[in-house]
Amino acid sequence: MFIRRNQEAHYLSMPLTQTKLSAPKKEIVWFENSAHIPFFEELERFVNEVKRIATENQN
After folding, report:
1. CB within 8 A of 34, min separation 6: which ones?
2. What is the pLDDT of residue 8?
3. Who's near 6: CB < 8 A, 6+ residues apart?
4. Helices and strands (H and E) in the chain: how many
5. What is the mean pLDDT of the segment spanning 44-59?
6. What confidence tens digit (pLDDT) does each residue in 21-43 have?
7. Overall pTM surpassing 0.85 (yes/no)
8. Which of 7, 18, 37, 42 is most exposed, with the fewest beta carbons within 10 Å of its own?
C-alpha cells in the first residue's frame, strides 16, 4: 500500500507515475480531505479502503 496525502503534494522526489512497484495490481486512492495522516483525518474511509483492497486481493 502506498499512501499519499493529496494530488497537490509535491514533496516526493519521484513522480508517482514513475514509482516501480512489484505488484500484480496497482491503484491510487486519493484522500482529498486529509493533510498528513488520512488514517486519522478520514478514518472511516481509510478503513473501508483497506478492507476493500484486502478483499479484492485475497487468493
Report:
1. 5, 6, 41, 42
2. 55
3. 30, 31, 32, 34
4. 2, 0
5. 89
6. 677 777 778 888 888 888 999 99
7. no
8. 18
Which DSSP symbol is given to 53?
Answer: H
Per-residue confidence band for 48, with pLDDT thresholds at 50, 70 and 90:
very high
In the chain, domain spans: 1-59
Burial class for 16, CB neighbours closer than 10 Å (0-12, 13-18, 19+) = exposed
* 16/57 Cα distance (integer angstroms): 22
Place of cell 487468493: 59
What gap in Å lies between CA 25 and CA 56, rounded to an integer? 10
